[in-house]
Amino acid sequence: MNIEDVGEIIAVRVLEYVEQGKEKSFVEVAIGKPRQFPESTDYYVPYRIKGAGIEKLWYAGGVAFNFFRQPCR
């Protein structure tokens, strides 16, 4: 399944890192509101990683979805 956007953003984190011999860089992780899989009762969470030459959309569903739920408990 391909997603085209992260939708309504419910959390954003900016991470800082330094590669050896280079300047400080930042990566932003934006987590979208959970959505229901088409024709299913299961849900997935879209997220975007942007920075360090990367800008890509992914999603987590099923077992990986628990990764996003744990901090909420």
Short summary of the structure?
With 73 residues, the chain is mainly β. It is 7% helix and 52% strand.
Q: What is the element string, with H for helices and E for strands?
A: EEEEEH
Question: Beta-strand level of the residues, as a percent range?
Answer: over 45%
Which runs of at least 5 residues are low in confidence (pLDDT < 50)?
none
Helix content: under 10%
Largest sheet: 5 strands, antiparallel
Please give the number of β-strands.
Answer: 5
Cα-to-Cα separation, first versus last residue: 29 Å
What quaternary form is this? single chain
Average pLDDT: 84
Number of domains: 1
> What overall geometry do the principal axes of the alpha carbons give?
elongated
C-alpha Rg, in Å? 14 Å
Helix-strand makeup class? mainly beta
| H/I helix tally | 1
Structure explained in plain terms:
This protein has 73 residues and is mainly β. Helix content is 7%, strand content 52%. It has one helix and five strands, in the order E-E-E-E-E-H. It has one helix at residues 65-69; strands spanning 9-18, 24-32, 35-36, 43-51, 54-61. Strands 1, 2, 3, 4 and 5 form a five-stranded antiparallel sheet that branches. Strand 4 and strand 5 (54-61) form a beta hairpin. The protein starts with 8 loop residues before the first strand and ends with a helix.
Task: Chart the SSEs and their pairings.
Layout: E1 9-18, E2 24-32, E3 35-36, E4 43-51, E5 54-61, H1 65-69
Antiparallel strand pairs: 1-2, 2-4, 3-4, 4-5
